[in-house]
Write a structure and sequence with these properties.
Layout (H helix, E strand, L loop, with lengths): L6 E5 L4 H12 L3 E6 L4 H12 L5 E5 L5 H14 L5 E4 L17 H29 L2 E6 L12 H21 L4 E8 L12 H9 L9 H13 L7 E4 L7
Helix pairs in contact: 1-2, 1-7, 3-4, 4-5
Length: 250
Amino acid sequence: MELQGKVALITGGATGLGREVGLRLAREGCHVAINYVPAVREAAEATRAEVAGLGVKAIAVEADVTDGAQVERMAREVAERLGPVDILICSAGVTVHVPFPDLQGVSEADWDRVMAVNVKGAFLCARAVVPMMRERGEGRIINVASSAGLTPSGSSIPYAVSKGSMITLTKCLAKALAPDEILVNAVAPSMMRTGWWSEVSEERLRQQEQGLPLKRAARVEDVADGIMYMIKGDSVTGHTLAVDGGVSMY
């Protein structure tokens, strides 16, 4: 896919991986819509300004991806202000930190929230933009999954299950949308040094890294490289690219 003049919508685009991908796309001449929730409004505006500084159009759009009406409104706003969406990056995600053996520690609210954001949200966003992609004859959807969806690991059972579901959603969408030249793929990072780890000490981070085959966390730049490859390429769909330091090979 040639990116010059295309329009990308990035959920969870204010910080971390979503921000990095937004900047990458902008450098390729892509206009960018950054989805955010109220808690990160300032970060979203800062990222929007940074993206716009690269010479493309950029907007920040508030929406809860678990609410179908808000998602449809967001898609319409992006189309009206930037143009029809060509690229969707589903980077919005949440988790809870509960050890796997502690089944009683997972509340129904925890389960519902994690599944709603990580799985339902990705589906609702795809559903909202696919009509635009079909009309234009091509599109790209990238879901940000996790190595926890490939092998039982991560911060909690709800998180691992949600990311496994996201990987299956990716395959289902890829099969459904292949006749329309809409390619759907996922990336599966393991540990990344992003804001999710902001409350963890450096010592603890280093201990976590020692559990990885490569003994180091992935950089957001590494994962963004994988996303950009799958956006630009024309022959890969239904694939999940593990950028996880080797975690999922076991």
